[in-house]
Amino acid sequence: MPAEAQTIELHGSLYDLAAVRELAGQYGGVARLSLEEGDHAVTVRFDDIDTDVADVLVDHFCNHALVETVRRNSQAEARLRGELA
Amino acid sequence: MSDTAANIDQEQLVDELQFVEDGTRVAVLVDEELYPRDAVYGAAYLFVDRAWVFLSRNDDKQIEVRLRPKDASSPEILTALAGEFANELLNQVMRVRISDSTQKIREYYMARAFFSTSTQSSIDQLLAELDEEELADDDLEISVPWSGDESEGGTGAG
Amino acid sequence: MTVRKGTIQLRHPRLDADAVGPFRFGHLANERVVLTHDTGEWHVLDQPDFERLLAGELDAEHPQHAALLDKGFLRDGMDAETIAARFRRKKRWLGMGPHLHVVITTLRCNQSCKYCHASRTDMDRVDTDMSLETAKHVVDTALQSPSPYIAFEFQGGEPTVNMDVIKFVVEYGREKNRYEKKTLDFSLVTNMTYMTEENAEWLLANDVLLCTSLDGPKHVHDWNRPWTGKSGAAYDSVMKWIEYFNRRYVEMGRDPELWHVDALMTTTRKTLDHWREVIDLYVSLGIRNVHLRPLNPFGFIMKTWRVVGYDMDEFLAFYEEALDHIIELNQQGVQLIEGTAAVFLKKILTPDDPNFVDIRSPIGAGTGQVAYNYDGTVFPSDEGRMVDAMGNGLWALGKVDQLSADDIIRHPTVKTMAVASLLDSLPQCSTCWNAPYCGVRPLHNFMMGGDLFGQRPNTPKCKQHMTIARLLFERLDADTDGSVERIFRRWTMERPRETPPQDAGTN
């Protein structure tokens, strides 16, 4: 039986929401993710979570979203500096 | 981006960073006017190997950085973790400020290194010398201008 | 649940943003701070002097002032033209194109090593030999590279199993180079178990550089590399041929410092337990370079990882002990270089860069090296070929008879690898003090986490490179009498080999 649903709200000024949307598609193997976008944040809902990963899935997703946000931010800055085409 | 950081009052050299821990995780409260977001990102990123990291916003100016150790946790471990994060945040602020304030110099020497006029002129000089040599070798004076098409014969394929 | 609040006092160092040059910084042991520059220049300060520098209070009378100004760490009086020239020299390999061309002459191999990274087939699989026609395309493509220096490296399988292709590449390569006029090197990475006297003499006469696998004393080498042939176990065969080649070089009048069999060691758990014996063996054989490399925790080795593997912390503890032992040996007059340290030291102590394809920004995959599989499939690196053999076809660029060197350099996969390894654009790397000396490997990242960019704190390579650079800086910083720096500088020197005799290798 899948674990109970969980939700997390990611603020749009701190997380790259395009990255969050893309990442959500990568987690289909362990849960069903749906996104609800508000004015300043996106709420990610995790349903049908695989019980093997239920205790860390949301945390793992948040780390992943942070890493991807920071990477895109770094690359955007490098583009501004002309170091990346 | 770092305007606010650059404007830190140079006389106000000590800041107090607040944290809250509940035995399993610690939340460090960061004033974005003192610590630019790039510095917060830089510091938070460094902890993803040993902690679950989550950022949230309490108000327009304050970011809450929540850290939950992946391994064992205790009030002492969480306090130490908050301290490490704070130190790294300080390092990141300095890195951001040095980077921002020296960006133009860096752009200048990088441009000079690869696109400088002196390099250009020496290449032009070299090309002119090569042209002269080619003309000297060309007994029939049939000089073929470079066409820009290297697809045949130029590189010795085959 | 008890909730507790606390505060942390943070003392912000004063920063006079107009006083400093562009640099990165990091902390070493004993509260020392290392500053590094894009040009590779570096300087170590104690914390109070570092804070003086930041505050713009390190004046012209300060004993470190002149050095800091010359290296570009101070703004007032900075010579930006000199810095630009240094940076240009440091990065002069940019745009040169691939110089390292790895040729997989065959997948056939007579050994089945516990850690084998290369895909291998049994000795009856002649269908995994490279054809002469493919070899000709390889030479043609390699010589199209704009690089003035081209190194062909024969690998396998066991490359000598297909000696005809080795001979062809050397002879055709030299013939063709009469017109291209590049500097050519040929090197052979062999386990020596398939060597014959006839082939050995041909390799000697044609100046093919030799590198063998030697994992340590007999009980370590034979444990790693199970094989029993006509001449006994694998170790006996390696010993026999190292002695043979080194003796023949002397008989040919070659300088043994430049002409000798080099050896590559693969570090398994067994090595960690016997590392002193391994180094002693290398010294006793007159080998001058030991390259302490960790295993890559992916590929075929995953089947045996539980037996041969270890984590990066274990490797780095071993590395530090072994590095100090090698430094001690050098202080006693032994000439032995640690290979990874030498790569970093060339970046740290000289105005040049060794253009080591795996440790540079951007990585040399496709722009510094190219690998050609036995069937003519081109990969941006030999690791790409290995991953391909595991069933991941993302890294194949195409067939050698259909690609020009320009097609390879401009291939979308190669461009992607470059973007994913440009340190200035990567989180943590862009501000890391080790950035002028370091390099990341997107393919490693992909294999370990399914993502080309990786997560730096979770990347063992980051820990490895950062630790090795830190160890070197700490030893340089603590070197009060200059003896360690003298040794390290010797490790950075490369003497050119003498021109081969006219009757050899130019037929």
List the helices and strands and how they pair.
The complex is a heterotrimer of chains A (85), B (158) and C (507).
Chain A: E1 6-11, H1 17-24, E2 32-37, E3 41-47, H2 57-80
Antiparallel strand pairs in A: 1-3, 2-3
Chain B: H1 3-6, E1 14-21, E2 26-31, H2 37-45, E3 51-59, E4 62-69, H3 75-115, H4 117-137
Antiparallel strand pairs in B: 1-2, 2-4, 3-4
Chain C: E1 4-11, E2 24-27, E3 32-36, E4 42-46, H1 47-55, H2 65-70, H3 80-90, E5 100-104, H4 132-144, E6 149-155, H5 163-180, E7 183-190, H6 197-205, E8 209-213, H7 218-224, E9 228-229, E10 232-233, H8 234-251, E11 262-264, H9 269-273, H10 275-284, E12 289-290, H11 305-308, H12 312-331, E13 337-338, H13 339-349, E14 369-372, E15 377-379, H14 382-389, E16 398-399, H15 405-409, H16 412-419, H17 442-449, H18 460-477, H19 483-491
Parallel strand pairs in C: 5-6, 5-14, 6-7, 7-8, 8-11, 12-13
Antiparallel strand pairs in C: 2-3, 3-4, 9-10, 14-15, 15-16
Helix pairs in contact in C: 4-5, 12-18
Summarize the structure.
Chain B is an alpha+beta fold and 158 residues long. Helices cover 47% and strands 20% of the residues of chain B.
Describe the structure.
The complex is a heterotrimer of chains A (85), B (158) and C (507). Chain A has 85 residues and is an alpha+beta fold. Chain A is built from 2 helices and 3 strands; from the N terminus they run βαββα. With 158 residues, chain B is α+β, with helices and mostly antiparallel strands. Chain B has a domain at 3-103: Gyrase A, domain 2 (2-Layer Sandwich). Chain B contains 4 helices and 4 strands; from the N terminus they run αββαββαα. Chain B has helices at 3-6, 37-45, 75-115, 117-137, and strands at residues 14-21, 26-31, 51-59, 62-69. A 4-stranded antiparallel sheet of chain B has the order 1-2-4-3, covered by helices on one side. In chain B, strand 3 (51-59) and strand 4 (62-69) form a beta hairpin. The radius of gyration of chain B is 29 Å and the shape is elongated. Chain B starts with a helix and ends in a 21-residue tail after the last helix. With 507 residues, chain C is α/β, with parallel strands linked by helices. Chain C has 19 helices and 16 strands. In chain C, strand 7, helix 6 and strand 8 (209-213) form a beta-alpha-beta unit. The radius of gyration of chain C is 24 Å and the shape is globular. Chain C starts with a strand and ends in a 16-residue tail after the last helix. Chains in contact: A-B, A-C, B-C. The interface between B and C is large, with 59 and 52 residues.
